[in-house]
Amino acid sequence: MTKLRQVVKGKLIKKSWHPILSTKAFDSAMLGETYVADPLSMTGMHLTVNLANLTGDIRQQGTSLKFRVFEVDNGSGIAGIVGYETSNSQLRRLVRRGIERLDDSIECRTSDSRLIKVKPFAVTIASTGKTKISLMRRKLREAITNEAAKQTFDELIRNVISHKLQSSLKSSVKKILPLRALEIRRLNLVSESEKKASESEETKETDTAKKAKKEKTAIAEDKGEAKEATDKTQ
Is 56:62 a contact under the CB 8 Å cutoff? Predict the structure, then answer.
């Protein structure tokens, strides 16, 4: 419904409300509305929706889904899901004294070649040593990479929402270390521009580390030469 007329370069432009719907993969659910003059301006718009509002399950209010409008159809924005996030407050409830927590970040690709970043969050039943934590981290990274490679991005998101992925990952590491809980803190698509920026930063860090190592070696060599000169003098 038209609510306002905006004057742009001497012309009156009518604004109206336009719905934003999810893709058919998520049952074309109503995500919200936006107030714009040109429906096409919705393209590229991002929005965050609480999962409980979509499912009606209050137990999921600690989880949010992130969407991006990628097309406009008959005045409605069609948004595809680009991320999943669990709130910090929900994760804090899982942490207790005398136990270990594991946070990690993994980049991998889904079966439809979409680059994603997954941040798992795990809590052990009891305190444990660094060796087992390292083994669990390695096994968890391997399991996430394998699971992602077998599923499309939409399938993976559905399995995260239903907690099928979390259960599978928890089972994959139980022989190494039983877990009290395993959650996906965050899962999101990574754009190629973000990937290039990340690789550039990693290259800079590697170059800095190499330079520091080279300088350290040079200092050690100088000290060795100085010692040899002193010994000869004596």
Answer: no
